[in-house]
Fold each of these.
Amino acid sequence: MEPLENGNRFGGKPQDITPYIKSGKKLQERGRIVTILSNLMASTFSLSSRTFQLHWNAGGEIDSQLQGCIKDQAKDLFSAVREIAALIRNLGWDIPETNHKTNYPAINLETDDLPVMLEELVHNHDNILSYIQSHLRFVAESGDDTTLSLLKERQRIHSENAIALDTFRKGRVAHARGTA
């Protein structure tokens, strides 16, 4: 297996898959880790699309600071999809099709209520945080430090993004109520 892009923190060097091949249990663990990563990749891609959708379509209602925040988050999410895909490939698997249902509603662009749109993004980040949290222990116990590192990094970033968006949302609600 050839190394992937050198600039990719989680995909730069393939993991030694020999221990996985020699042990059926390790192979099952690796399969479960690939499933976890595939579902995370699908959720991240979905959220990336929704974040770009808001960035491109919300228009004049968004001030430049919020617009920059949303744009940065969308770019990070898109990059995260690449990192997760690289990690799956470095585990020795092709990128699988996924049936993972994200249950994320599309951002409602028919509304002029920016706080509602921001709340939807916060909810999407929270769903991903819950998903990551539900799998951290298994990944830690499997000894896959590279995947564990990626999950912890994504957990930190999704938490920060949710807080930032929620702060903007609360500021918008307070401003609309005249309490800002």
Note: The radius of gyration is 18 Å.
Amino acid sequence: MAKKKTESKPVAKPASTSKNSKPKARKVPEIPPFGESREYFTKFLTKNKTLLKKRGNQEIFKKWLADHPEFDSIPWDVAQALGAVKFHLRKELNIHDVANRKRKEGKSSIHTGKSSGVSIQSLEKLIDECILVAVDVDRDDFDPIIHHLRYALKQVIKHGKN
């Protein structure tokens, strides 16, 4: 059975048909080169070092938009430039977030006080279950792991007695 031919509708031609005319392009502000954005943010952030310690970029973006009124929003390249500049300046000025500072000072975010008997007992049970699973899976391959788990269990029991 032969297919029926469908008539194609003619495509509308642009208003001007001359070869030399170009369609009107939408006016889009030209994005500043990556280097220019980097220089802008480097100058701004070296004057305002407190902004390097903050995680958000809203203040910086507001300032950039105020200085570049031809833009309605932040272009992707400009946001990338800001991220790169903040990273390098933080590294250069040795500015770290709170977690890194605590880690460097030797402080742990984990509670290190006396543990309750309930948590020690639950830890003993968990380690004991791990030993049982390791034995069931393959005793020969897991022998070093079983050895370490038994040592850990002994240490937890000692800690619980103290």
Note: The CA atoms of residues 36 and 81 lie 9 Å apart.
Amino acid sequence: MARLDGRAVGHEAARVANAVETKPESEASLEFAEDLITFHSRWEPEKFRAALLRYGEMFFEDFAPTIREEWQLPVATVLLNKRIAFMTVPGEAFVEFQINWRDRCPVRDAFLSGLRQWLLRVSPHHPSC
């Protein structure tokens, strides 16, 4: 059954890919911006450190030194042809941050990605999400 479903998805993906029509952009552009944004901790640092101790000394030693009240973190935005925006942030942005950015973004197609523990996660905004 899974093989049939996989084949059906593959055939549909191929059909859609073949139907895509590309055209050259008469006013192609690429814009880039990088800023530092202040992010505040969700938790009180001392209470968070105390809670970490419950997980063990090794866990505490790994994570406690990184706990702060706020961080200055770099964010980068790329705008393609004034139509598609990509924003990168370190860590995992809260849904509210993602939606707030998407709502303020001047283009319809906007994607936010966060990097945490070597995993890239892409969070496109879709009304059903």
Note: DSSP finds four helices and five strands in the chain.
